[in-house]
Amino acid sequence: GQNIDQPTEMTATEGAIVQINCTYQTSGFNGLFWYQQHAGEAPTFLSYNVLDGLEEKGRFSSFLSRSKGYSYLLLKELQMKDSASYLCAVAPYGQNFVFGPGTRLSVLP
Amino acid sequence: DSGVTQTPKHLITATGQRVTLRCSPRSGDLSVYWYQQSLDQGLQFLIQYYNGEERAKGNILERFSAQQFPDLHSELNLSSLELGDSALYFCASSSGATSTDTQYFGPGTRLTVL
Hints:
The complex is a heterodimer of chains A (109) and B (114). With 109 residues, chain A is mostly beta strands. Chain A contains no helices and eleven strands. In chain A, strands 2, 4, 5, 9, 10 and 11 form a six-stranded mixed sheet that branches. A five-stranded antiparallel sheet of chain A has the order 1-3-8-7-6, with no helix packed on it. The radius of gyration of chain A is 13 Å and the shape is globular. The model of chain A has no long low-confidence stretch (mean pLDDT 92). Chain B is mainly beta and 114 residues long. In chain B, 0% of the residues lie in helices and 51% in strands. Chain B is built from no helices and eleven strands. In chain B, strands 2, 4, 5, 6, 9, 10 and 11 form a seven-stranded mixed sheet that branches. In chain B, a hairpin with a 5-residue loop joins strand 4 and strand 5. Chain B is globular. The model of chain B has no long low-confidence stretch (mean pLDDT 94). Classes of the chains: A mainly beta (109), B mainly beta (114). At the A-B interface, strand 4, strand 5, strand 9 and strand 10 of A face strand 5 and strand 10 of B.
């Protein structure tokens, strides 16, 4: 089976950098996704990692280490609008997405 | 705007009733997924359809059923509703059938069962 862990809540200051971690236990998977979800709204796609390493996309970067069962999402130059939940999801072989519980990020002025 | 549409946006009904939620995928996408998100809970995968056929089933109750029509829109039917069914129901779509494909989510239907 799959088990995905994320911190429940994080707080950071506007303009700062924050790293949101995701650890998982799964026997094998195609890739790992990160989604952003504002309260009451739809999740929106942020990034997809297939290979180990860092994928950079503007202010957001995502890292994957398959050997360590670990991923993180790095948000730079935080803005108030980045206050949201961040969900990681793994795509196990032959199965559908399994979403983590999400990390609720609060960005303070 | 993801290109996925869902109706209605809000639905309020009573216990024991039946409701139908509707989803239209992004143009060109063949897969439709349904998810349930209860208060303070993560996204729970319910069911996936690909090009009209059921592809995968998650934690979907027997009281719930879904289908995908020839024009690729999908409907999720919830019957004998209980208070605990109150949740946000999201539909997502992707181009392919597998979990390697990015899923794009609709705005959701907020169901309240009184």
